[in-house]
Amino acid sequence: MIAGGPRSVVRFAATELGVVALAIVYVLAILPFCPELATRDQAFAALVNAAPLLVLALGQAFALLIGGIDLSVSGVISLAGVVGAMLLTSDGGVLADSSLAIPVALLAMLLMGGVVGVAQGAAVAYWELPAFIVTMCGMMAMGGAAVWLTGGARLGSLPLPLLETVQGDWLRVPVILWVATALAIVCYLLLQHTVLGKHLYALGHNARAARVAGISLGRVTCFAYGASGTCSALAAILYTCRTESATPSFAREILLDAIGAAVIGGTSLSGGRVSVMGIVFGALFITLVGNSLTLLNLDYWHVLMAKGGVILVAALLDAARRGVAGGRA
Protein backbone atom coordinates (compact mmCIF):
# COMPACT_ATOMS: atom_id res chain seq x y z
CA MET A 1 0.00 0.00 0.00
CA ILE A 2 1.22 3.49 -0.88
CA ALA A 3 1.17 6.21 1.76
CA GLY A 4 -0.96 9.32 1.38
CA GLY A 5 1.83 11.71 0.37
CA PRO A 6 3.42 9.49 -2.31
CA ARG A 7 -0.08 8.57 -3.45
CA SER A 8 -0.80 12.19 -4.31
CA VAL A 9 2.45 12.41 -6.24
CA VAL A 10 1.63 9.27 -8.22
CA ARG A 11 -1.89 10.51 -8.97
CA PHE A 12 -0.44 13.80 -10.25
CA ALA A 13 2.14 11.93 -12.35
CA ALA A 14 -0.74 10.02 -13.96
CA THR A 15 -2.21 13.26 -15.34
CA GLU A 16 -1.31 15.23 -18.46
CA LEU A 17 -0.09 18.06 -16.22
CA GLY A 18 2.26 15.60 -14.56
CA VAL A 19 3.95 14.89 -17.90
CA VAL A 20 4.21 18.62 -18.63
CA ALA A 21 5.75 19.19 -15.19
CA LEU A 22 8.24 16.39 -15.84
CA ALA A 23 9.25 17.97 -19.15
CA ILE A 24 9.70 21.40 -17.54
CA VAL A 25 11.87 19.96 -14.76
CA TYR A 26 13.97 18.11 -17.33
CA VAL A 27 14.47 21.22 -19.46
CA LEU A 28 15.41 23.34 -16.47
CA ALA A 29 17.89 20.70 -15.31
CA ILE A 30 19.63 20.30 -18.65
CA LEU A 31 19.42 23.91 -19.89
CA PRO A 32 22.67 25.05 -18.21
CA PHE A 33 24.53 22.36 -20.17
CA CYS A 34 22.56 22.80 -23.40
CA PRO A 35 21.33 26.43 -23.72
CA GLU A 36 20.49 26.02 -27.43
CA LEU A 37 17.63 23.73 -26.38
CA ALA A 38 15.62 26.85 -25.49
CA THR A 39 15.88 28.38 -28.97
CA ARG A 40 12.90 28.70 -31.26
CA ASP A 41 14.51 26.47 -33.90
CA GLN A 42 15.04 23.65 -31.43
CA ALA A 43 11.50 23.91 -30.09
CA PHE A 44 10.19 23.73 -33.66
CA ALA A 45 12.46 20.76 -34.42
CA ALA A 46 11.15 18.93 -31.36
CA LEU A 47 7.56 19.37 -32.53
CA VAL A 48 8.31 18.13 -36.05
CA ASN A 49 10.41 15.20 -34.82
CA ALA A 50 7.70 14.21 -32.34
CA ALA A 51 4.95 14.00 -34.99
CA PRO A 52 5.82 10.56 -36.48
CA LEU A 53 6.49 9.21 -32.98
CA LEU A 54 3.08 10.47 -31.85
CA VAL A 55 1.45 8.59 -34.74
CA LEU A 56 3.23 5.40 -33.67
CA ALA A 57 2.43 5.89 -29.98
CA LEU A 58 -1.26 6.45 -30.70
CA GLY A 59 -1.37 3.18 -32.62
CA GLN A 60 0.52 1.36 -29.88
CA ALA A 61 -1.97 2.73 -27.35
CA PHE A 62 -4.80 0.71 -28.93
CA ALA A 63 -2.90 -2.53 -28.33
CA LEU A 64 -1.91 -1.51 -24.81
CA LEU A 65 -5.45 -0.41 -23.98
CA ILE A 66 -6.81 -3.94 -24.43
CA GLY A 67 -3.98 -5.40 -22.36
CA GLY A 68 -1.81 -6.42 -25.31
CA ILE A 69 1.30 -5.04 -27.01
CA ASP A 70 2.45 -4.60 -30.62
CA LEU A 71 6.15 -5.30 -31.15
CA SER A 72 5.86 -5.37 -34.95
CA VAL A 73 6.11 -1.58 -35.32
CA SER A 74 9.57 -1.41 -36.88
CA GLY A 75 8.81 -4.34 -39.18
CA VAL A 76 5.62 -2.71 -40.47
CA ILE A 77 7.45 0.59 -41.03
CA SER A 78 10.27 -1.16 -42.92
CA LEU A 79 8.04 -3.29 -45.16
CA ALA A 80 5.43 -0.59 -45.79
CA GLY A 81 8.16 1.88 -46.71
CA VAL A 82 9.76 -0.63 -49.07
CA VAL A 83 6.43 -1.53 -50.69
CA GLY A 84 5.59 2.13 -51.24
CA ALA A 85 9.04 2.96 -52.60
CA MET A 86 9.00 -0.03 -54.97
CA LEU A 87 5.80 1.33 -56.46
CA LEU A 88 6.91 4.96 -56.57
CA THR A 89 10.64 5.16 -57.23
CA SER A 90 11.69 6.53 -60.60
CA ASP A 91 14.45 3.88 -60.65
CA GLY A 92 12.24 1.15 -62.05
CA GLY A 93 9.19 1.60 -59.82
CA VAL A 94 6.13 -0.44 -60.82
CA LEU A 95 3.94 2.69 -61.08
CA ALA A 96 6.68 5.23 -61.76
CA ASP A 97 5.04 6.56 -64.94
CA SER A 98 1.44 6.46 -63.72
CA SER A 99 -0.54 9.51 -62.61
CA LEU A 100 -2.11 7.30 -59.93
CA ALA A 101 1.23 6.20 -58.50
CA ILE A 102 1.13 8.31 -55.35
CA PRO A 103 -2.46 7.57 -54.18
CA VAL A 104 -2.16 3.88 -55.05
CA ALA A 105 1.18 3.54 -53.23
CA LEU A 106 -0.05 5.35 -50.13
CA LEU A 107 -3.22 3.25 -50.05
CA ALA A 108 -1.17 0.07 -50.49
CA MET A 109 1.05 1.05 -47.54
CA LEU A 110 -1.90 1.77 -45.26
CA LEU A 111 -3.75 -1.39 -46.32
CA MET A 112 -0.65 -3.49 -45.74
CA GLY A 113 -0.28 -2.14 -42.23
CA GLY A 114 -3.96 -2.61 -41.46
CA VAL A 115 -4.14 -6.15 -42.84
CA VAL A 116 -1.02 -7.22 -40.98
CA GLY A 117 -2.43 -5.75 -37.78
CA VAL A 118 -5.79 -7.49 -38.18
CA ALA A 119 -4.05 -10.79 -38.91
CA GLN A 120 -1.98 -10.46 -35.75
CA GLY A 121 -5.08 -9.53 -33.77
CA ALA A 122 -6.86 -12.61 -35.10
CA ALA A 123 -3.96 -14.83 -34.03
CA VAL A 124 -4.11 -13.31 -30.53
CA ALA A 125 -7.90 -13.46 -30.22
CA TYR A 126 -8.88 -16.70 -31.94
CA TRP A 127 -5.76 -18.84 -31.59
CA GLU A 128 -5.15 -17.44 -28.10
CA LEU A 129 -1.46 -16.90 -28.77
CA PRO A 130 0.48 -14.42 -26.62
CA ALA A 131 0.57 -10.97 -28.23
CA PHE A 132 4.26 -10.72 -27.39
CA ILE A 133 5.10 -13.80 -29.49
CA VAL A 134 2.75 -13.01 -32.37
CA THR A 135 3.91 -9.45 -32.88
CA MET A 136 7.59 -10.25 -32.32
CA CYS A 137 7.37 -12.89 -35.05
CA GLY A 138 5.59 -10.31 -37.21
CA MET A 139 8.41 -7.84 -36.65
CA MET A 140 11.04 -10.41 -37.64
CA ALA A 141 9.11 -11.67 -40.67
CA MET A 142 8.34 -8.23 -42.09
CA GLY A 143 11.81 -6.89 -41.37
CA GLY A 144 13.29 -9.92 -43.13
CA ALA A 145 10.91 -9.52 -46.08
CA ALA A 146 11.90 -5.86 -46.46
CA VAL A 147 15.61 -6.77 -46.58
CA TRP A 148 14.92 -9.63 -49.00
CA LEU A 149 12.95 -7.42 -51.39
CA THR A 150 15.65 -4.75 -51.52
CA GLY A 151 18.81 -6.74 -50.96
CA GLY A 152 19.41 -4.53 -47.93
CA ALA A 153 19.69 -1.36 -50.04
CA ARG A 154 17.84 1.90 -49.48
CA LEU A 155 15.26 2.88 -52.08
CA GLY A 156 15.25 6.53 -53.09
CA SER A 157 14.26 8.68 -56.08
CA LEU A 158 10.75 9.20 -54.72
CA PRO A 159 8.31 11.52 -56.54
CA LEU A 160 9.02 15.19 -55.85
CA PRO A 161 5.31 16.14 -55.48
CA LEU A 162 4.91 13.65 -52.62
CA LEU A 163 8.06 14.83 -50.86
CA GLU A 164 7.11 18.49 -51.26
CA THR A 165 3.63 17.83 -49.87
CA VAL A 166 4.70 15.93 -46.76
CA GLN A 167 7.73 18.13 -46.10
CA GLY A 168 5.81 21.33 -46.88
CA ASP A 169 3.60 23.67 -44.86
CA TRP A 170 -0.09 24.47 -44.84
CA LEU A 171 -1.16 27.71 -43.19
CA ARG A 172 2.48 28.09 -42.07
CA VAL A 173 2.29 24.84 -40.11
CA PRO A 174 4.18 21.72 -41.31
CA VAL A 175 1.91 19.17 -42.96
CA ILE A 176 3.40 16.46 -40.75
CA LEU A 177 2.03 18.28 -37.68
CA TRP A 178 -1.42 18.56 -39.27
CA VAL A 179 -1.41 14.80 -39.90
CA ALA A 180 -0.40 13.94 -36.33
CA THR A 181 -2.90 16.41 -34.85
CA ALA A 182 -5.75 15.11 -37.00
CA LEU A 183 -4.98 11.53 -35.97
CA ALA A 184 -4.88 12.49 -32.29
CA ILE A 185 -8.31 14.13 -32.59
CA VAL A 186 -9.76 11.09 -34.37
CA CYS A 187 -8.35 8.75 -31.72
CA TYR A 188 -9.72 10.90 -28.90
CA LEU A 189 -13.21 11.01 -30.40
CA LEU A 190 -13.20 7.29 -31.13
CA LEU A 191 -12.04 6.29 -27.66
CA GLN A 192 -14.16 8.72 -25.68
CA HIS A 193 -17.36 9.12 -27.70
CA THR A 194 -18.10 5.86 -29.50
CA VAL A 195 -19.42 2.43 -28.54
CA LEU A 196 -16.29 0.86 -29.99
CA GLY A 197 -14.18 2.97 -27.66
CA LYS A 198 -16.19 1.74 -24.67
CA HIS A 199 -15.68 -1.84 -25.83
CA LEU A 200 -11.92 -1.31 -26.05
CA TYR A 201 -11.85 0.02 -22.48
CA ALA A 202 -14.07 -2.83 -21.28
CA LEU A 203 -11.80 -5.46 -22.82
CA GLY A 204 -8.76 -3.84 -21.21
CA HIS A 205 -10.41 -3.65 -17.78
CA ASN A 206 -11.80 -7.18 -17.62
CA ALA A 207 -11.98 -9.47 -20.65
CA ARG A 208 -14.22 -12.02 -18.92
CA ALA A 209 -16.75 -9.38 -17.87
CA ALA A 210 -16.66 -7.90 -21.38
CA ARG A 211 -17.48 -11.30 -22.88
CA VAL A 212 -20.36 -11.79 -20.45
CA ALA A 213 -21.65 -8.34 -21.46
CA GLY A 214 -21.90 -9.54 -25.07
CA ILE A 215 -18.85 -7.75 -26.47
CA SER A 216 -17.18 -9.53 -29.40
CA LEU A 217 -13.66 -9.83 -28.01
CA GLY A 218 -12.30 -11.15 -31.30
CA ARG A 219 -13.53 -8.23 -33.36
CA VAL A 220 -12.41 -5.65 -30.82
CA THR A 221 -8.96 -7.25 -30.59
CA CYS A 222 -8.63 -7.34 -34.38
CA PHE A 223 -9.62 -3.69 -34.55
CA ALA A 224 -7.06 -2.71 -31.90
CA TYR A 225 -4.18 -4.40 -33.70
CA GLY A 226 -5.47 -3.25 -37.08
CA ALA A 227 -5.42 0.33 -35.80
CA SER A 228 -1.89 -0.14 -34.52
CA GLY A 229 -0.74 -1.55 -37.86
CA THR A 230 -2.42 1.24 -39.82
CA CYS A 231 -0.79 3.89 -37.62
CA SER A 232 2.58 2.19 -38.14
CA ALA A 233 2.05 2.34 -41.90
CA LEU A 234 1.09 6.02 -41.66
CA ALA A 235 4.28 6.62 -39.68
CA ALA A 236 6.16 4.79 -42.45
CA ILE A 237 4.82 7.32 -44.96
CA LEU A 238 5.98 10.21 -42.79
CA TYR A 239 9.42 8.74 -42.08
CA THR A 240 9.96 7.74 -45.71
CA CYS A 241 9.10 11.20 -46.98
CA ARG A 242 11.21 12.93 -44.31
CA THR A 243 14.29 10.84 -45.12
CA GLU A 244 13.43 10.77 -48.85
CA SER A 245 14.09 7.04 -48.94
CA ALA A 246 12.81 3.70 -47.68
CA THR A 247 15.03 1.86 -45.22
CA PRO A 248 14.62 -1.96 -45.16
CA SER A 249 16.03 -2.22 -41.64
CA PHE A 250 14.32 0.61 -39.79
CA ALA A 251 15.68 1.52 -36.34
CA ARG A 252 14.44 -1.01 -33.78
CA GLU A 253 14.55 1.47 -30.91
CA ILE A 254 11.55 3.32 -32.35
CA LEU A 255 9.40 0.59 -30.77
CA LEU A 256 10.59 1.46 -27.27
CA ASP A 257 10.15 5.16 -28.00
CA ALA A 258 6.52 4.55 -28.98
CA ILE A 259 5.79 2.40 -25.93
CA GLY A 260 7.60 4.88 -23.69
CA ALA A 261 5.64 7.84 -25.08
CA ALA A 262 2.36 6.00 -24.47
CA VAL A 263 3.24 4.87 -20.94
CA ILE A 264 4.71 8.22 -19.90
CA GLY A 265 1.49 9.76 -21.17
CA GLY A 266 -0.63 7.64 -18.82
CA THR A 267 -1.40 4.51 -20.84
CA SER A 268 -1.31 1.43 -18.62
CA LEU A 269 0.84 -1.55 -19.57
CA SER A 270 -1.83 -3.81 -18.05
CA GLY A 271 -4.68 -2.35 -20.10
CA GLY A 272 -7.83 -0.36 -19.39
CA ARG A 273 -6.30 3.12 -19.28
CA VAL A 274 -5.25 5.58 -22.01
CA SER A 275 -4.93 9.34 -22.39
CA VAL A 276 -4.59 10.78 -25.90
CA MET A 277 -3.45 14.17 -24.62
CA GLY A 278 -1.02 12.43 -22.28
CA ILE A 279 0.44 10.52 -25.25
CA VAL A 280 0.94 13.82 -27.09
CA PHE A 281 2.99 15.14 -24.18
CA GLY A 282 4.75 11.78 -23.79
CA ALA A 283 5.90 11.83 -27.43
CA LEU A 284 7.15 15.39 -27.01
CA PHE A 285 9.05 14.43 -23.86
CA ILE A 286 10.75 11.40 -25.43
CA THR A 287 11.71 13.55 -28.44
CA LEU A 288 12.97 16.30 -26.15
CA VAL A 289 15.23 13.85 -24.32
CA GLY A 290 16.65 12.53 -27.58
CA ASN A 291 17.22 15.98 -29.07
CA SER A 292 18.86 17.40 -25.95
CA LEU A 293 21.28 14.50 -25.53
CA THR A 294 22.20 14.69 -29.20
CA LEU A 295 22.93 18.42 -28.79
CA LEU A 296 25.27 17.48 -25.94
CA ASN A 297 27.22 15.40 -28.47
CA LEU A 298 26.70 12.19 -26.54
CA ASP A 299 27.30 8.91 -28.32
CA TYR A 300 24.32 7.16 -29.87
CA TRP A 301 24.51 4.38 -27.29
CA HIS A 302 24.44 6.87 -24.44
CA VAL A 303 21.24 8.34 -25.85
CA LEU A 304 19.72 4.85 -26.02
CA MET A 305 20.73 4.17 -22.41
CA ALA A 306 19.14 7.43 -21.24
CA LYS A 307 15.91 6.69 -23.11
CA GLY A 308 15.89 3.22 -21.62
CA GLY A 309 16.12 4.74 -18.16
CA VAL A 310 13.24 7.11 -18.90
CA ILE A 311 11.06 4.25 -20.15
CA LEU A 312 11.94 2.17 -17.07
CA VAL A 313 10.84 5.06 -14.84
CA ALA A 314 7.61 5.25 -16.85
CA ALA A 315 7.00 1.53 -16.27
CA LEU A 316 7.62 1.95 -12.55
CA LEU A 317 5.17 4.86 -12.50
CA ASP A 318 2.59 2.67 -14.21
CA ALA A 319 3.08 0.01 -11.55
CA ALA A 320 2.69 2.67 -8.85
CA ARG A 321 -0.50 3.95 -10.48
CA ARG A 322 -1.94 0.44 -10.41
CA GLY A 323 -0.92 0.18 -6.77
CA VAL A 324 -2.79 3.40 -5.99
CA ALA A 325 -5.85 2.16 -7.87
CA GLY A 326 -5.70 -1.17 -6.06
CA GLY A 327 -5.44 0.54 -2.69
CA ARG A 328 -8.35 2.81 -3.53
CA ALA A 329 -10.44 -0.21 -4.51
Radius of gyration: 20 Å
* Number of separate helices: 14
Percent range for β-strand residues: under 5%
Q: What is the CATH third-level topology name?
A: ABC transporter involved in vitamin B12 uptake, BtuC
- Please mark out the parts with pLDDT under 50 across 5 or more consecutive residues, or reply none: none
Helix content: over 70%
Number of strands: 2
By oligomeric state, this entry counts as single chain
CATH class: Mainly Alpha
CATH-defined architecture = Orthogonal Bundle
The major sheet is characterized as: 2 strands, antiparallel
- Alpha-carbon distance between the termini? 11 Å
Strand order of the largest sheet: 1-2
Mean pLDDT: 89
Helix vs. strand class: mainly alpha
Shape: globular
Tally of distinct domains: 1
Give the H and E element order: HHHHHHHEEHHHHHHH
Question: What does the model show?
Answer:
Helix 1 packs across helix 14 (300-328) and helix 8 (175-193) packs across helix 9 (195-205). The termini are close together. This protein has helices at residues 4-13, 16-30, 40-65, 73-88, 101-126, 131-150, 160-167, 175-193, 195-205, 207-212, 217-243, 253-264, 276-295, 300-328, and strands at residues 169-170, 173-174. The chain has a single domain (4-328), classed as ABC transporter involved in vitamin B12 uptake, BtuC, CATH 1.10.3470. The chain has a two-stranded antiparallel sheet. The longest helix is centred in the C-terminal third of the chain and has 29 residues, at 300-328. A hairpin with a 2-residue loop joins strand 1 (169-170) and strand 2. 74% of the residues lie in helices and 1% in strands. By secondary structure, it is an all-alpha fold. The chain is built from 14 helices and two strands.
